[in-house]
Request: fold
Amino acid sequence: MTKQLLFILLLLSQLLLVSCGESYVFEKAYEIEKEEWRYANTLDYAFEITDTTKIYNLLLEVQHSVDYSYQNCYFKIYTKFPSGEKTEQLLSVDLADGVGRWQGECSGESCTTLFDIQKQSFFNALGTHTITLEQYMRKDPLTGIQNLAVKLEDTGLTR
Reply:
């Protein structure tokens, strides 16, 4: 096989891998300064909905230190709709299993895990929707959380 043909095959395989990835219509991450997440440090993720027929997955990505002291993490999640209406939900995510093994992908001093907030959901209103995350643990500051991201994935489905 010539070098040119090998290069073309490698390039095509890379293009296929990129095109098969997730389809996030929104993705925003916050780095937690000094890995100390305080109660007062709420995180806002605002995104536009332009089509109410689409079905989405709403995801939370948590990056934490391998020295994080707990098996799980509690969040309060507030949703503000374009009408001004607000909802609140409590979410607990398991970062480690029952014997202490981290659930996510770990590399070096960090682990990253992706969680479903809502699967196959839709939005009834056009406009700006805001998700606000607040840490809801019994420790202030909560240490070991490095980065938090909210992602809105287009499933390709409609209702």
Remarks:
- Residues 24-158 form a domain with the Jelly Rolls fold (CATH 2.60.120).
- The CA atoms of residues 6 and 147 lie 39 Å apart.
